[in-house]
Amino acid sequence: MARPQLQPSPVQIRFVDFELDEANACLLRHGKAVALAPTPFMLLCVLARQPGSLLSKDALLDAVWGHRHVSDSVLKTAISELRTALGDDPRQPRFIETVSRRGYRFIAALSPGATSLPEATVAPAGGGQPSPPFVGRADAVARLHREWERAYGGQRAVVWLAGEPGIGKTTLIEHFVSGLGSVACARGHCVEHYGAGEPYLPVLEALADLCRSDPALPALLRTIAPTWLLQLPWLSTAEERDGLRRELAGVGPERMLREMGELLDRFTEQRPLLLVTEDLHWSDRATVQLIDYIARRRGRARLMWLASFRVAEVVALDHPLNSLRHELRLQRLCEEVVLDPFSEIEVADYVAQRSASLARDEAFVRALHERTDGVPLFVSSVISEVMDQADDDVTIEARLANLAVPENLAAIIDHYIAKLGQEQRALLSAAAVCGAEFRVETVSLALERDLASLALACEELVHEQVWLMRSRAGEGEEAEERPYSFRHALFRQVLYDRTPRALRIHLHRQVGAALEHERTAGVPVAASELAMHFDRARQPMIALRYYAEAAETALLHFSPASCVGLTERALVLLQQAPEGPERDALEITLATLQGVSAFHTLGVGSEARNAFERAYTLLANAPEHPMRGRLLHGFGYLLGLRGDYALALVVAERAEALSSEANDPALSLVACIVQGEVHHLQGRTQTTRSWLERALALAEPLDIGANEIFATDPQVMLHGMLAIELVRSGLIEQGRAHMQRARTRAQALRQPMTRMVAAWQEVLIEVRMGNHARVAELADEMQVLVDEYSLALGRTACRWWRGWADARNGAPRDGYRCIREAYEEHTGLGMRSGASEVLGYATEALLLAGDYDGAMAELQEALRVGEELGERVYLPQLLLLEAAIAREQGRPDAGANAVRRAVEEARAQEAPWLELRALVELCEHHDAVPAERQVLAALLGQLPETQGTELAQRACTLLRAERSD
């Protein structure tokens, strides 16, 4: 390709209302500047330089973009932007004419006196460029600035910066950031990981960076984003962190998304923010999910999120980022800037930074371009190599010809590896095993070499500007304290791959041991990093211990999906571990954590159940396992939610037996709670009360609150559960007293999950009392908790209770739809506990709507499900609904029979309140015999705490009417 060696002088012309001044880089209309990005401006100058002449597409691509590695579409886009700025109509053009399939022509009439200077001058050598020199990328820079302007104006912007290794993504980011001045900029990097990466790693790094530069941010975190504050432990005391964990127990991972959204919105009210996350192809799923959330978030935010990644790796690995970038582009919620390799002209411009005369040598430029494929990193490396050689008798061209630069880019790095000395190679190999960033102290321990000599060797490698650089400093951080990082990730990756496998295994073992030593000395080292090193070092038992620790940390940091990934990798690795007690103990830990995390992310399906079941089976080999409480409570709770009540009781009995052997009151508390929950659902009122009273006696002195075993405070849960049973027993005042204690303690503890459980239990009482107004209030309260804290528990229940209240409040059809949709979602997740009661709500809604056939169908399903599960707690109410339907259908005998069955069932359940309700229904709507009215009178007298209730008033009215008769 012929490359022009001269650049024409700047264009300066006037046409119609416009004045084009290339030298001053401006387009004026009526003396006022017209906003125009650099690439369309350059295109206008090229067209205006030859007015009336047809310029082919190839000529324009060559002149503006260097032609190579770009398509016609970029030209069409630039022409469109240019026409928009000029107000030109392509169908009736005044300025730019399209010549179909050939090119474009500048057709504007020049104003009298307009000038265009034809002389040419030699292109400048570019001595004024910053170091490192920045070449080309005008269009990319313009697009970034355009997005920043949008963000500055309050319209959030997500920008992908895509390209292959060495293409100059980081250089472009540095150039762009430096051009913005003193704006708030937070930067984080993803690092290559093994298995599940640390959740939100680049965002946490950026957040920490921002906290160092903005002393007001930690206080904002405490107020707006406490879950994120927990991820930055140096910003709070151990006591504050423990308090936060208790307050946030049971919070779902979605809460972190909402908090970050609120934090960014609030922060950017005061100043715009540029958030940069690099190497997103190595990102964890949580970070990708956060970008998705921020991009879709509505409302004003002066935020630009700039994220770089390698296209090939994202596509080849089916990274979740790949589908996200396409989805957001389709919905116009992001901008993607793809960097292509340098064209020959851009290579020449780069060479001109070193030698203007060499840049004019077309053969040299073409050879350099071909040998490097125009990849900026390799252009820089090769030109430095050929320019810096000391043999003055050999020409530059000869040096390039003699330099064995293969077509394969990785082989260029091999060339540099071959030049390393033995000690340098050993140092860098160990550093590559450490990762993209490393501490010289770690390498010193791993290689058992003198720290001072290694530090000196690292500094020499930094000065060579090929392999290493110092990581960016935080505020107050001295240069000598900062870790080192590889200048480019690809150099590190090739060096790692070229390190012999046996040596890599050895180095991972040494680095892992070094990091362990540093960790004991107080250096923060993530358990997931240690797990990765010992995994690759073929030391499965050590790796498994760290995988277990990392998985538990992920749960503490509200990242159950990361916990699932870590445990999945660990359980595969477990097959390599020798059989024995230690392996069994590790498998119990990993399977329990997998069960907990799968429950949070996937519900109570087979994934969670199988994991818990595996750990439960192995517990026979390790009955004193420290995670047995979490396992037994989690497994028993899951079985209860699934409706597997018989198995849940077996687990409770196992917990009771273990607690007796070990004198462990916490295990006994687990057994009592599971027993109480199951017996309640099976309608055994007195048995349930005895278990709950025993549990309260255990829980109150322990006062353990929410912890790793109990997601909610046991005392609150037990007071609420006992309140329900007392109400069923007709002890209304005592039940309300316990419920008040539960509510008061829940409010004092400020734990969202505990508050949810307290509201859940109170609404069950109010449903039984028939108080639809209070049920509506509680359902709305639960919905607020679900929305604010992303609580999975309650997401469906608050909707079916709201539907029940709406149905009783005059909107039965709407209420039914709400109940049924919530029920389908709930059972779709595998949760069948309480299903017969929810179907009873649906039955009642259709009954109120006058749809008796539909109500009967719902009722039959409720009775079938209750029979199948052995769930009898709501059976008396279901029988009363059957009676009401029969009465409306003109079948009084069937109705009376159903009511009498409800009376018998309430007596069998030892639930006087339910018996009272059934007897009132019998006397109000059916021909009750005198004996039955006498039973009603006797029962009312036995239940003094029911006085004042609506049901007791109805009973008294009935009895007075009978006496008057």
From TrEMBL:
Start and end residues of each OmpR/PhoB-type domain: 10-108
UniProt cross-references to SMART domains, sorted A to Z: Trans_reg_C
Name the UniProt record assigns to this protein: AAA family ATPase
Organism classification: Bacteria, Pseudomonadati, Pseudomonadota, Gammaproteobacteria, Pseudomonadales
Keywords assigned: ATP-binding, DNA-binding, Nucleotide-binding
Domain of life: Bacteria
One Pfam family matching this protein: AAA_16
DNA-binding region: 10-108
